[in-house]
Amino acid sequence: MVSARPYGRRRVVTETRTQQLIPSSVLGMLLFVVVEIMLFAGFISAFSIVKASAIVWPPPDQPRLPLEETALNTVALLASGVLLFLARRSFRKNPVGARKPLLASMALGAFFVIFQGVEWLRLIQEGLTLTSSNLGSFFYMIIGVHALHAVAALILLTYVWWQLQQGRLRSSLLAAAEVFWYFVAGVWPVLYVTVYL
């Protein structure tokens, strides 16, 4: 905001700057995450209605979802979020110190995505497909959309890593990537409990 004050015959112009509470990139990512939460809430609602109206669930002719293996994968994804938090703390003190926890977070995230892909291939071979049952349709739709988010978040984290390596990483970019990754990691346990159990 610019204000003018009379000073004798001359006018002195002073400028007042407002400080940003939340960087634009973080605010934009938060808004995106809110929309995505609504998307997943719609998926979960539809899945719950279909599951509650079924006489037998899961369908008897369909393979069972791998609970134990996916539980391990869930731990890897949650640990990835913890490592990203540690990377942020290290970045504040010494940006170079953020490299190892950030790289470890990305590695666990990649493990999660690859493991989910292996799981999908095994389930397809066992007969669970998009058209085999309501379980198959919802499983691939809900878990697939989450997988797309995980891949997109990994791409963003890779960009963050590259910026860090170049010595050009801005705190706001790291914070925006954190918001996205925490969403991916945070929504997964809800999906695991809803779809797998």
What's the structural domain tally?
Answer: 1
Largest β sheet strand count, sense and barrel closure = 2 strands, antiparallel
Strand content: 5-15%
Described by the principal axes of the CA atoms, the overall outline is: elongated
The helix content is: over 70%
Q: What is the CATH homologous superfamily assignment?
A: Cytochrome c oxidase, subunit III, four-helix bundle
Classify the secondary structure makeup into a structural class.
Answer: mainly alpha
Report the radius of gyration as a whole number of Å.
Answer: 23 Å
CATH topology: Four Helix Bundle (Hemerythrin (Met), subunit A)
CATH architecture: Up-down Bundle
CATH domain class: Mainly Alpha
Could you give the order of strands across the largest sheet? 1-2
Question: What's the end-to-end separation, in Å?
Answer: 56 Å
Q: Average pLDDT, to the nearest integer?
A: 91
Count of strand segments: 2
Q: What sequence of helices (H) and strands (E) makes up the elements?
A: EEHHHHH
SSE topology sketch:
Layout: E1 2-7, E2 10-15, H1 24-53, H2 67-93, H3 99-125, H4 134-166, H5 171-196
Antiparallel strand pairs: 1-2
Helix pairs in contact: 1-4, 1-5, 2-3, 2-5, 3-4, 4-5
